[in-house]
Structure formats: structure tokens, C-alpha cells
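Entry type: protein chain
Record version: 2
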Amino acid sequence: MKKRQGQKGFTLIELMIVVAVIGVLSAIAIPQYQKYVAKAEVASALATLSGLKTNVEAHTVEYGTFPAAKTENDLGAPIGMKLGTITFKGQGTGASGASGTINFEFATSASNSVSSLISGKNFELTRNTAGTWTCKASGNNAVTADLLPKNCK
């Protein structure tokens, strides 16, 4: 009798199990990665807006009002950002004229490479008359709270 030689390679069942495990891992990992990318894009936009606060404060001290949309070039706001657009909106007049918001609206994913989780959504930094800044997402088209940085709720 001849001795049977050891089999080399994998059986079909073993290969199918490996493919199933990879499929399950992918089903979990891909959505988490997309959420991570969206959070990074929101953090990048917040960093951009936070950098503008100093220029807005200087404008408010010099002119006594929150800057209007026409002065965004003067304040160092990046124009034509791939992530989205920045707008300034003053609130009130007189003593309350120094309050306002800096709004960031993300571009639509069809026109840019913005994550689909934040495409077309927005959030804002708001300055009150006392000079305190708050970050929030509000309105129908706001970035969801789970994608905002911890200091912006």
C-alpha cells in the first residue's frame, strides 16, 4: 500500500469562512472610517473658524460692530475652500451690534470630496455682546452632534 501524501492548500469551506470573516469586518470598518473622515473634516473647519476669531475681535474693537459679509476678505477668511463656505452675519445694532455669527456650510459631496455625512450641513461660532464665543450646530441642516468636536456642542 502506498502512503497518502499530505494535502497542500485550503479547502473550499476554509476559503469561504475567510471571505465571510473579511466581509463582516468590512461591514463594520467602512462606516466607522467614514465617520472618522467626517469628524476630521468638521474639526478642520472649526480650526479655520477659530483662527478667524482674533480678526473678528480686532474688527469689533476698531469699528464697534461685527464684520459684515463684504469684509470676509479683509478678515483672512479663506475664499474658495474645497470643504465649504464661510459667511459672517452681524446681529443687532448699537451695543448689540458687536454680536454675530461665523457660519461654515460644507460643500455638497456631488461637487466636492466632502464626506456624505456632512455634505451641505453647517455649524457656527457665535459671539455675544460680552465677547464670549460659543460653537453650535443648529437648524434643519446642522451637523449632527456626534460629528462635532467636544468643545462644540
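Comment: The first strand starts at residue 84 and ends at 91.
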